[in-house]
Amino acid sequence: MPFATVTPTATVPPVQAPAQSTTGQIMSSDLEQQREQQGQQMIARAQQLFQAQNYGEAFNLVEQVLQVMPNDLPALILKGQLLGTAGRYAEAQQTIEHILQLDPNNAMGWSMRAVVFSNLGQHQLALEAVERSLELDAQNPETYAIKNNIMGNLAVAQTQTEDQPKSKLNTTETPINIAHGFMLGLALSILGIVLGLVGIGLLTFVASIPYIGLFIACIGMAILCVNAAHGSFRYGFALLLETIMVSVALVAVLGGVYKFGQASLIHQINLHPTLFMPTLTLVVWLIIAAIVPLVLALGGFVGGLPTRLRRKKSR
Question: Which member of 156, 238, 264, 298 has the greatest number of CB atoms within 10 A?
Fold first, then answer.
């Protein structure tokens, strides 16, 4: 019996499940585009509010955008600007660092970083940041304005730093100068009075050559007058006080002699008539020494007031 030939049965390949329709992808893409467009519109609106100085509403819009798109650079840049405008520099700095992490070559981010550093007083870091911004975008005039402002702040800060030791030195030197001026003025006043007394003494005991004694007495008076006027002009109240003290002392001497030694003095003049002129000269000299230097000191004090005020301001 012949072998019947068996014809193989054809096998139908299994039916594969159809791939997911791309309809969902298209819809997702459309939603993403709509979301981006809506975000751009909100950022544009926030920019308008920012320019209108309506910072609160602008910040709220930016926050809404960042909740949906946390890495949106325009939104982050505007947020950094809003925080900087509000003086919230620490938060602004965090936002700017986020921007530069996303885009290290973002010139606007480096400019904002420079402004924040400058406002925080870190002028050298601000200068480095603005230089980096200019490397990335050398055509931005606002960046040059920021750099000029930073350079000015840096110069002012350096000047203040240099002036601090000088101002400390001046504050310690001023009392020393005043004390030195007071002691020098007192010494010159004593010298003038001594010369006046020596001159009057020469008039008394060397009557044959009265011009020498008169000359010395005049030198003493000149020292008193010049010291009072110049010292009060330069040192102010310290030398005025010294002149007042000397004048009061001279008036006290005259008053004491008049009250307690008048009778004895008259008796001596009656016994020695030659003492009359020297005594009269001494009294007149003491009166002049008590009045004229004080008047000159008052004039010097008032006249030197503007100069002393300018000197204090320059310190």
Answer: 238
The letter for the amino acid at 50 is F
Q: Which residues of 83-92 are buried (b: 16+ CB within 10 A; e: fewer)?
A: bbeeeebebb
Who's near 157: CB < 8 A, 6+ residues apart? Answer: 121, 123
Token representation of residue 229? 């006027």
Q: What is the pLDDT of residues 84-118, one digit of tens each?
A: 888 888 898 899 999 999 999 998 889 899 899 88
Q: Which two tokens stand for residue 51?
A: 């320019």
Q: Does residue 158 have a pLDDT over 80? A: no
- Measured distance CA(273)–CA(264) in Å, rounded: 14
Model confidence at 161, in pLDDT bands (50, 70, 90)? low
**Which residue, 110, 57, 108, 119, is CA-closest to 85?**
119
Q: Which domains does the chain have, with CATH numbers?
A: 32-139 (1.25.40.10), 165-314 (no CATH)
User: pLDDT at residue 282 above 70?
Assistant: yes
What gap in Å lies between CA 182 and CA 168, rounded to an integer?
A: 22
- State the pTM of this model: 0.45
Spatial contact of 99 and 72, defined as CB atoms under 8 Å apart: no
- 10 Å CB burial of residue 255 (0-12, 13-18, 19+) is exposed
Residue with tokens 């975008």: 137
Which of these, 72, 146, 57, lies nearest to 110 by C-alpha position?
Answer: 146
Q: Please identify which residue in the block is written with the tokens 């920019």.
A: 47
Produce one character per residue of 275-299: b if its CB has 16 or more CB atoms within 10 Å, e if not. Answer: eeebbebbeebbeebbebbbebbbe
Residue 12 is predicted with a pLDDT of: 37
- The answer to whether the CB of 203 falls within 8 A of the CB of 210 is yes
